[in-house]
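Students often ask why we bother encoding 3D structure as a string. The short answer is that it lets us treat folding as translation between two languages. Here is a chain of 294 residues written in the first language.
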Amino acid sequence: MAAHKTFLLVALCILVELLVTANGAHEQRTSAELSLVQLQEQLDRYQEAIDAFNRTTAAANNLALLAHNVLHHAQQILPQPLTHLSEYSDIFDAVLHGDDAAVNQLLEGDPTLIDKRDFYGRTPFLDAAEKGHVGVMKAIHESKSDVLQQTTDDKKNALHLAAYDGHVAAVDQLLEWNPKLIDAADKYDNTPLMGAAFGGHVEVMEVLYAKGGEELLKQTNNDNWTALHWAVWGAARHGNSAAVSQLLKWYPELLDIEDNDGKTPWDLAERYNEAEIGGIMANINKCQEIQFVG
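And here it is in the second language, the structure alphabet:
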């Protein structure tokens, strides 16, 4: 850098002398000399700026090295990489994506998250059951087994939610942990079977029936609706009559059970103008009559 400065100054001096000699003008010489002084001052300022930049760069490099060492030390201490935590800062996001490893890690960092409630009053465990994420359910259950007692604001437990949305594997797992969940009633006395019947989830109904038997079919809510009432209403809304057929195969007597308004499943089918459901019921009733006469 110094050699370049010296060479530039010498070259400029020669240029100035040539200009003075060629023109013989004293004023030009004076002006050129002034320009040379100004140039020297400018070069000095550039040099100061370069020195300052070099000092700043050295400090930045030292700071970066320190940060790298701190991060490396932290990664040696922590059981999991920090990068995984940054993906889900909220436990409900981790549940939504079925990431049981992230859920585990978040609970290790803050065990109180296990009782956190979302906008709908669901805990992470209830949310996992509703979405059918069995891996997440297991991770949370291992952390705190009494999550099976958690309910929503309207008293639905995890089995209600899993059955309503047709998650067979989640239903199986919940019953393995606690078979008594099958008889749990929500705020309106609805059972998990009623939720499955409304959704038309026959596979879930079969799992529940295998555990609870005929007594499960006779259960009613506070409107005296059976699972068949719910299945008829669900079929009217969703267009799936398979649940109606299955319930009647198991227990045809459900046809004659009246609700608090004196309405049987027959009446509901007529109200919703469900000819297909009415036909299914008529066939079942005809079979009953033939069986009775025989």
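Translate back mentally: Confidence is low (pLDDT under 50) at residues 80-86, 288-294. Keep this in mind for the problem set.
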